Amino acid sequence: MALAHAGLAAIYASPMRRARETAEPLSRVTGLEVQVDERLTEFELADWGPDQEFDWTIWRGEHAGVPGGETLQAFAERVSAACDDIVSPHAAQSVAIVAHSGTNDAILRWVTSIPADNPWYHEFDLPNAAIVELLVWPEGRHPEGAPRYGVIQRAPNLDHLPESLRSDT
User: Fold this and answer.
1) Nearest to residue 12, comparing CAs of 133, 120, 95?
2) What is the mean pLDDT of the chain?
3) What is the mean pLDDT of residues 107-113?
4) How many CA atoms lie within 13 A of 94 on its CB side?
5) Whole-model pTM?
6) Please, what is the Cα angle at 84 between 99 and 114, to 5 degrees?
7) How far is CA 44 from CA 59, 60, 76, 126, 149, in A?
8) pLDDT tops 80 at residue 110
9) Strands 8-13 and 34-36, how do they pair?
10) Cα 72 from Cα 117, distance rounded (Å)
């Protein structure tokens, strides 16, 4: 099983069923309890109906979000706060976060220090079940360097999946 021998200190997951169920086998193999963090849920579209055309202007900083949902800035702030809280007590340790596509985008924005209020001019192409390996120094990598330093070490990694289960969505 992927990550079974990674020396994990903790496993975190979104409260959404799919994320919790994905984290459970890793929990059984490592003996670590899955810690559910509400802030790792997917971007909240709320009242966005299945028949509505997606509003591609949602990326704009001044956009108010979707009816009953959240703005991308609020979403990025929520996920960033979760990342800060998860990484701080586990400096120099490995943790697993099981989340969703949008949440993973927000995590990558956090690790690359893109401020939450910056518009989303991108999307990271991360297929389902992809593993993304990040190195994060929460207090910076060097005393005179950046206050937090992150490296995207490997993304997306699908080596743990049989070819028949790999997809690009």
Assistant:
1) 95
2) 84
3) 93
4) 12
5) 0.85
6) 80
7) 14, 16, 11, 19, 28
8) yes
9) parallel
10) 8
Contact (Cβ atoms closer than 8 angstroms) between residue 12 and residue 96: yes
**Tokens linked to 39:** 């802030």
Considering only 21-30, 36-45, 58-67, 118-127, which range has the smallest mean pLDDT? Answer: 58-67
**Residue whose pair of structure tokens reads 């001019």 in the numeric block:** 121
Contact 35, 94 (CB under 8 A): no
User: Among 78, 73, 99, 137, which Cα is nearest to 14's?
Assistant: 99
Q: Cα(5)–Cα(15) distance, rounded to whole angstroms?
A: 24
**Torsion over CA of 8, 11, 34 and 12, rounded to 10 degrees?**
170
